[in-house]
Amino acid sequence: MGILVAVEGLDGAGKRTIVGRIEQAAAERGASVSSIAFPRYGESITADIASEALHGRHGDLRESVYAMGLLFALDRAAARPLLRQALAEHDLVLCDRYTASNAAYNAARLGQGAESEVVSWVADLEFGRFGLPVPDHQLLLGVPPEVAMGRAVGRAETDADRPVDSYERDSDLQRRVYRVYGELVESNWMSTWSWADGDNAVEQVLAQLN
């Protein structure tokens, strides 16, 4: 079985870029690599409904923390066969967002921390009831909220397919999410963690292959 690594961070933190750099660096070392990005917009109906809610559709759906959390969890649950197949066929499997994002955003929306009931609910739902594989390691990109939010807005201005949603527009929420992420790192929630950016982030993941 391969190693499962989740790359976490705020919207605009550069997760897609770092995942690509890790893929290239791991392949250069002779490792077989696969990656999957969550939410799977355009592929998963639950992910698409969640996205639509974040852009003002489906009434008051987005107001429910647990309803939104369930939609994102169901997206990952539907991808469980893909994850297990990837782990069986590759040395390294990278997830651009995984369960920790659900834990961090839900806790932050409720004004709570990493020790809250909703974080336990996410773990029990996704790893317990849905049987998702637990990551071997998780990486939090150390990009401050102000920087990440600026990048997200700039990206939306140049890419019509990636408009900012209600979470991304909420600067207070983004700061709370980053704080909860930090607490997850400090408690080694569900696995070991690294908190890094740039070249150091890439090296932290490559070290897992050793």
Could you explain how this protein is built, in words?
This protein has one domain: Rossmann fold (3-Layer(aba) Sandwich), CATH 3.40.50. The protein is 56% helix and 12% strand. The protein has helices at residues 15-28, 45-54, 65-78, 80-89, 99-109, 117-129, 145-158, 166-169, 171-186, 198-209; strands at 3-8, 33-37, 92-96, 137-141, 192-196. The protein has a five-stranded parallel β-sheet, with helices on both faces. The radius of gyration is 16 Å and the shape is globular.
Overall morphology: globular
CATH class: Alpha Beta
Radius of gyration: 16 Å
> Ranges with pLDDT <50 over ≥5 residues?
none
Give the biggest sheet.
Answer: 5 strands, parallel
Tally the structural domains: 1
Q: So, the CATH homologous superfamily?
A: P-loop containing nucleotide triphosphate hydrolases
Element order: H for helix, E for strand: EHEHHHEHHEHHHEH
Mean pLDDT: 93
According to CATH, what is the topology? Rossmann fold
Compute the number of helices. Answer: 10
- Binned, the helix content reads 55-70%
Chain-wise SSE layout:
Layout: E1 3-8, H1 15-28, E2 33-37, H2 45-54, H3 65-78, H4 80-89, E3 92-96, H5 99-109, H6 117-129, E4 137-141, H7 145-158, H8 166-169, H9 171-186, E5 192-196, H10 198-209
Parallel strand pairs: 1-3, 1-4, 2-3, 4-5
